[in-house]
Each structure stands twice: as C-alpha cells, then as structure tokens.
Amino acid sequence: MENITKENIYIVIPAYNEGAVIGEVVQGVRQNGYEKIIVVDDGSIDGTFDAAVMAGAIVLRHRINRGKGAAVKTGLVAAKNMDATAVVTIDGDGQHDARDIELVISPLLFEGKDVVLGTRMFATKNISLYKIVANRIANLLIRILTGIWVSDSQSGFRAFDAKALRLLFDVGDRYEYDSEIIRQIARNGLKYKEVPIRVYYTEYSTNKMQKQGIINGVKTFYRLVWNIIS
User: Fold this and answer.
1) Rounded-to-integer distance, Cα 140 and Cα 20, Å
2) CB 79, CB 47: distance < 8 Å
3) What is the Cα–Cα distance from 168 to 166, expressed in whole angstroms?
4) Contact 125, 48 (CB under 8 A)
C-alpha cells in the first residue's frame, strides 16, 4: 500500500448550485487539517465557482450540468493526476461533518481497506421517514443486484485508496454513481468497510430541487440494472 499522509490525501467535493454553502464546506475541511481540496462545479448557474475559489479550493468546472457521478469522476481523475494516494468524497451541501474525514480515512491507514463507506446515522430527529425508507429499499436492491449488503448505499461520504482510484472510473454520471460504486467493489474484489458518520439535514439541503426523489430513484435503479446487463 502506498504511504498515505495528509499531504497526499485529496478531498473531492461535487457541487451544483451550492454557492450559499460551499465556502463553509471548504473551510470546514481546511480547519480539520486538509488543504488538498478539489471542488467540481457541475455547471452551476449561481456563485458556486467563485465561492469555492475564495475559500481556497482547487476548482474545476463543467460547462453544463452532467450529474453527480460525472462531477465526482472529474475530481477523482484530477486527484489521481496530482498523485493522490487517497481521496475522500463529501457532498457540497453541508450535510457532512468534516471531522468525520479522520474516521473514513482510518481503515485505509490501519486496516488495509481499499474503500470506506460512510454510513449516515439515520436515528436522528431531523431525517424524514421517507428518506429512511427510500434508503433501505435502495440497500435491498443493491444487495440483490451486487450480492453485497451495505447499510447506506446512497451515502456520498467515502474514502478510496490508490488501488481503488485505478479501478473506479467505469461508473454512471448521475445519482446511480453512489450505487454503481458498490457494484464496482464487488466486481473488483475490493476490501471495504462501513463506518458511522454524522449527517445534518438543514432546510437548505432538504429543499434543494436536485435531491433524489422517487422519480430519480426509479431512474437510478433502471440505469444500474442496465449497466449490469449491458
């Protein structure tokens, strides 16, 4: 395993119209000792790009909105080209706690894992019943399609070592990305672990229009099945 230090860990943050909060997200990461931060502005039409630059991130931009998966892949490719030995992905809407980066990195450092999946603790009062039920259904479908059971197949808080970075680019562009990663773990025999993370759903994050709803969930499942059989 390649030597992993804070100096060669990159934090990748996909962002679409997150101008109101992306600066705080980047600052939170920096306050926890991580300076290699890549924000991928996925065709935003607000101030996301400028806010991320002002906060001190490396900012890449898609000219059009291509989807979360495409934004994450752009960030992973960039980090790999910058000689990252590990990458942590977090969402750009402020729902994740940068203090948990240490938790998801630890199994890469000390347990030889290739991928770490952050598992959101859903037993909190600010998470809707709909989101809990939808997540459990998604977990069951992923189990049927991949043979792997995970507690939170839709979490965007994840860590990847250099081996995983070399293997995880054949994934979908949109919200099926989160599920497709699980399939790639199974396909490539990657060693993975789940760790509990905190999550904060604010009025801002829950009201965002691009958040995955029922229709997007059906589309995600369709794309995942199509990727498997095609």
Assistant:
1) 35
2) no
3) 6
4) no
Question: What pLDDT digit, counting tens, does each position of 52-107 carry?
Answer: 999 999 999 999 999 988 999 999 999 999 999 999 999 999 999 999 999 999 99
Domains (ranges, CATH) in the chain?
A: 6-229 (3.90.550.10)
pTM of the model: 0.85
The structure tokens listed for 119 are: 């598992």
**DSSP strand pairing (192-197 vs 9-15):** unpaired
Q: Which residues pair with 192 in a beta bridge?
A: 115
- Angle between the N-to-C axes of helices 176-188 and 68-81, in degrees from 0 to 180, rounded to the nearest 10: 50
CA 155 distance to own-chain centroid: 7
97 strand-pairing partners: none
Q: Which 3-state string (H, E, C) describes the chain?
A: CCCCCHHHEEEEEEECCCCCCHHHHHHHHHHCCCCCEEEEEECCCCCHHHHHHHCCCEEEEECCCCCHHHHHHHHHHHHHHCCCCEEEECCCCCCECHHHHHHHHHHHHHCCCCEEEEEECCCCCCCCHHHHHHHHHHHHHHHHHHCCCCCCCCCCCEEEEHHHHHHCCCCCCCCHHHHHHHHHHHHHCCCEEEEEECECCCHHHHHCCCCCCHHHHHHHHHHHHHHHHC
